[in-house]
Amino acid sequence: MFDLKWIRENPEKFDNALVKRHLPPHSAEILALDEDRRAHVAKLQEAQTRRNAASKEIGRAKSSGDEKTAQALIDEVADLKTEIQDGEEEERRLSEALNDILSSLPNRPLDDVPVGKDEEANLLVRQVGEPPEFAFEAKQHFEIGEALGLMDFETAAKLSGARFVVLKGLLARLERALAAFMLDLHTDEFGYREIAPPFLVRDATMFGTAQLPKFADDQFRTEDGFWLIPTAEVPLTNLVRENIVDEDELPLRFTAYTPCFRLEAGAAGKDTRGMIRQHQFSKVELVSIAHPDQSLEEHERMTSCAEEVLKRLKLPYQVIVLSTGDMGFAARKTYDIEVWLPGQNMYREISSCSVCGDFQARRMNTRFRVKDAKDLRFVHTLNGSGLAVGRTMVAILENYQQEDGSVLVPEILRPYLGSAERITAS
RNA sequence: GGAUGGGUGGCCGAGUGGUUGAAGGCACCGGUCUUGAAAACCGGCAGGCGUGCAAGCGUCUCGAGGGUUCGAAUCCCUCCCCAUCCGCCA
């Protein structure tokens, strides 16, 4: 969502941002609507002013017993009434039209975001860790998991169809261990507050983080009108919807371990095998509600918090900055963290950390009161995966695989797995 | 699913047709007092939109929309949301 006043003053910047996102310019259309709307508002308010003045006079006339003057004024006001009603309706219509456009346009990329058509234009920021060398041919995670008898896609298909998995034994426990490890790290060391949020939310919540109205087709919806969250970003960010928060409690940092549900409507044929792309996966999410002056700094910090998970798991990864063509709708800038997958011989996304500026805050109407001034400003919001648990498991299986088909447990996870050092066929 | 009661400013909470955009309290801001702080006292303090260089002016908003009325937070209708009790249930 955008600030109309800002668009009025910076139409060319606004359009440039859209062009960077490979969308046609919209400022002319928006400003025409806006101008129309303001003209109507002015006219409407004028009529309202006259009505209000007349109403007051009616009160005075009546109380002084001047029925004749009162009646004349009443007749005058009756005419104004239809004018006002028509004006209100027109104003509502124009405001809605304006809102429909504004809420369907993506956020403006920051200036330092590489401009490009798609992921080809993403830029490498840094690489950390060395891909492991194997004396044998590295397998993909699903080969490893299935051979261990702990990862079962066939049974999952029986239960739920494609893009689901059943994990068993130590792999099921590994999922829980990873979540616990990540949450402990983010809460104990990085100051995030652990939240256990609802996984079903309503329209307004999905609108707040901008899944709605544009991406309804990517979401699961219950018959009762609830949406299954596609990420904990949705409930965590909306924790402060319609709130006025204290300036000195910023930044608010939240983390949650939740399942995420995605229709993957546009991903037919992509990553059909294995756990990479599922309708349901779990993720530990990080969300910050930040002061506008500190949101960029917070973005770097959040990214480093997510990276720390991979460092401690000793998984090699790289950080890239997404190009304007690859960035999500609400983001102004996004770092993706990609983990090395020996079985695929490539880096794959395991985390995405975005700073959204005031884009979501405007949709949620989340503000803070400026100290020593009484004006209200929109907060900035950020979100990042810290990390996607399923893909982290994939990375562990592939990076820690052994020639005999077993998988070593990263040291830091062993306390969470009953001291198990190795996952073997059961 | 059945039955009630509710939705008012950052928060609590008065207010059932006529300067009520809304008492009072809390919080917050400024000041007096104090060595400093607290307390006490005095003063300020809703948001959106429009207009204006600005001071300001206008307008809308008491969950949302519609209606009655010269006039609605207050009356009527529809919808949304919340709470409590009963039933069911982890």
Short description:
The protein has 426 residues and is an alpha+beta fold. It has helices at 4-9, 11-20, 27-63, 67-102, 141-148, 153-160, 169-189, 203-208, 233-238, 295-312, 359-364, 389-399; strands at 123-128, 151-152, 166-167, 193-194, 200-201, 227-228, 244-245, 252-261, 280-290, 317-321, 333-341, 346-355, 367-369, 376-378, 380-388, 407-408, 422-423. The chain is elongated and about 105 Å long.
Task: Walk me through this protein's architecture.
The protein is of the alpha+beta class and 426 residues long. The chain has two domains: 101 residues, Orthogonal Bundle (Helix Hairpins), CATH 1.10.287.40; 305 residues, BirA Bifunctional Protein, domain 2, CATH 3.30.930. It has twelve helices and 17 strands. Strands 1-10-11-12-15-9-8-4 form an eight-stranded mixed sheet. Strands 7-13-14 form a three-stranded mixed sheet, with no helix packed on it. Strands 2-3 form a two-stranded antiparallel sheet. Strand 13 and strand 14 form a beta hairpin. Helix 3 packs antiparallel against helix 4. It starts with a helix and ends with a strand. The structure holds one RNA strand of 90 nucleotides.
Protein traits:
2 domains, alpha+beta, 8-stranded mixed β-sheet, single chain, Helix Hairpins, BirA Bifunctional Protein, domain 2, 426 residues, RNA-binding, 3-stranded mixed β-sheet, elongated
How is this fold's topology laid out?
Layout: H1 4-9, H2 11-20, H3 27-63, H4 67-102, E1 123-128, H5 141-148, E2 151-152, H6 153-160, E3 166-167, H7 169-189, E4 193-194, E5 200-201, H8 203-208, E6 227-228, H9 233-238, E7 244-245, E8 252-261, E9 280-290, H10 295-312, E10 317-321, E11 333-341, E12 346-355, H11 359-364, E13 367-369, E14 376-378, E15 380-388, H12 389-399, E16 407-408, E17 422-423
Parallel strand pairs: 4-8, 7-13
Antiparallel strand pairs: 1-10, 2-3, 5-6, 8-9, 9-15, 10-11, 11-12, 12-15, 13-14, 16-17
Helix pairs in contact: 3-4, 5-12, 7-12
The chain binds one RNA strand of 90 nucleotides through residues 38, 41-42, 44-46, 48-49, 51-52, 54-59, 62-63, 70-71, 73-78, 81, 88, 243-246, 369, 371-372, 374, 376.
